[in-house]
Amino acid sequence: MSAEHLEDVIKEEPLQTFLALCNWPLHRQFQKMTDCIFSLLTEREFLQFLHEVICYKVKRDWMDWDYVELLNELWKRSPEHFKQHVESSELLDILKMALNHDYKKPFRVQYP
Fold first, then answer.
1. How many angstroms separate the first and last alpha carbons of the chain?
2. Can you list the alpha helix ranges (DSSP code H) found in the chain?
3. pLDDT in tens, 48-96
4. CA 43/CA 85 separation, integer angstroms
5. In whole angstroms, what is the distance from residue 23 CA to residue 18 CA?
6. Which residues have CB under 8 Å from 73's CB, separation 6+?
7. CA–CA separation, 31 vs 7, rounded Å?
8. Contact between 48 and 93 (Cβ < 8 Å)
9. Distance (Å, whole) CA 79 – CA 99
10. What's the rounded Cα separation, in Å, for the pair 15 and 82?
11. Contact indicator for 74, 83 with CB cutoff of 8 Å
12. Organism's domain of life (predicted)?
């Protein structure tokens, strides 16, 4: 896929594209794209992205990438209004647990 085509796909389906880029072997591509994630996703899509990463990567103890580091990096870089949206959601407590998860024990938490 050309860079132009990827750019078009991201603009049309940013959430699905970023989720797909979280899968091996596309991690490096995701890392290159993190600068634009906040300009392309809405607050709601960012919340959904966090939920998907926690549900399908962290909770299932996937070890193909450090998803906890990914969550921490995105959380640190996220704009204040994105953080406020997440903080007002049911996901906040689970996100806090995921941000501190160390992979020594399975991530077993019930969430919405």
1. 36
2. 3-12, 14-21, 27-40, 43-53, 67-77, 80-87, 92-99
3. 999 999 988 888 877 777 888 989 999 998 999 999 999 999 999 989 9
4. 6
5. 9
6. 34
7. 15
8. no
9. 17
10. 15
11. no
12. Eukaryota
Token couple for 41: 């996703």
Query: What sign does the dihedral 35-41-42-44 (CA atoms) show?
Result: negative
- What is the predicted pLDDT for the residue at 109? 60
pLDDT at 43 over 60: yes
Higher pLDDT, 80 or 22: 80
DSSP state of 63: -
Residues 6-19 pLDDT 10s:
777 778 888 998 88
